[in-house]
Amino acid sequence: MQQDMIVVLDLGSEQNTLIAREIRALGVYSEIHPHDITQQQLAALPNVKGIILNGGPNRVVDGKAIDASRAVYNSGLPLFVVDHQGEVQPSLPNWPQKEEARRDALRGFIFDTCHAQPNWNMENFIADQIDLIRQQVGNKKVLLALSGGVDSSVVAALLIRAVGPQLTCVHVNHGLLRKGEPEQVVEVFQKQLGANLVYVDAVDRFLTKLEGVADPEQKRKIIGAEFIRVFEEEARKLDGIEFLGQGTIYPDIVESGTKTAKMVKSHHNVGGLPEDMQFALVEPLKMLFKDEVRACGLALGLPESMVYRQPFPGPGLGVRCLGAITRDRLEALRESDAILREEFANAGLQGKVWQYFTIIPDFKSVGVRDNARSFEWPVIVRAVNTVDAMTATVEELAWPLMHRITQRITQEVKGVNRVLYDLTPKPVGTIEWE
User: Fold this and answer.
1) Distance in angstroms (rounded) separating the CA atoms of residues 222 and 268
2) Phi, psi at residue 107, to the nearest 5°?
3) pLDDT in tens, 67-107
4) In DSSP terms, which residues pair with 80 in a beta bridge?
5) What string of DSSP letters covers 182-204?
6) Which of 13, 32, 68, 392 has the fewest CB within 10 Å, making it most exposed?
7) How far is 86 from 55, CA to CA, in rounded Å?
């Protein structure tokens, strides 16, 4: 069943995702699109029942006031204005200030004015995506970057259901994975799930490319570009590969910047892709938030242990080994992360805290080891909770646990003499440091 859609047009508000999620919570599908959407682009969207114009205090871009395109006002679709400056288009309903009134106004617009049906659910979403994948791919073959994380695992399950034997999964060990992770990916996907899996050892290749590179944006772009090159090489060994499957989700796109919002950071699968890439992308999760991706995975029959696995960034430990990556600091990062995960599991926090990891910056501090001066790295511990990865709160850890983590890391990890805890929520910080 094709789902009815309410389109949210971005006019500079920071509440786009909030409104889209409120609409989906009412059982109606919603997508966010740029304010200057064209008539052709609008007409190409399926089952649009209404449009929400979402303004904000920064309704000026590059010194010019912005508004929706003429195609929106001439579309004949019902319009609803959300304007946080109090500027309302004549004859159009405005956004109430009180939360309960806002929900009532939203319900009235969606169901009474637009006559949208509450048919947004994971079963319908999966059915739609399978149809779309089959239409896009046809009888061609797909290459999937399979990290073993939640996003790529759910994409793999969708692609297996949609195109089955036309899918080849490629797991690249770029040297930036957590301890024991490459072995685990091979065990689960190849041996247990029977996926057509190609394992590529590219550790030296990636670390050589990243040598001396300190800028986080440049690191992300190098990692993203090198991934594509590896996939192109693997594709040339196969016949008929024309598509690249990716686990891009909506927060990746939002944080990589829009026409009305500044970039937070480019994600390797959004801002880091080379312009001369030879694949067409298959990204069935790109409009889902993280909690929706997990719900999709469960609906596809994936085990909870896989679906609720901790998120892991595409560039891996490359964005947690801050500054220019060195092999010794990367190894210290890998070992400290393994200790942290082990201690969280022993404390019963596995599955209860959304994400936790360690970070090692590219500087050292003075300490004391074996009654002598030491000059070693600090390890920063980060533990956060979130629903959709757009905002995050910090987990309050018990002091005995923090003492145990500190003792183990400083005693067991070579080159480390301090352990710090990051107390910064998102915003003002981001979940990752780079």
Assistant:
1) 8
2) -60, -45
3) 888 889 899 999 988 755 444 343 444 555 566 777 788 89
4) 52
5) HHHHIIIIIIIS---EEEEE-HH
6) 32
7) 10
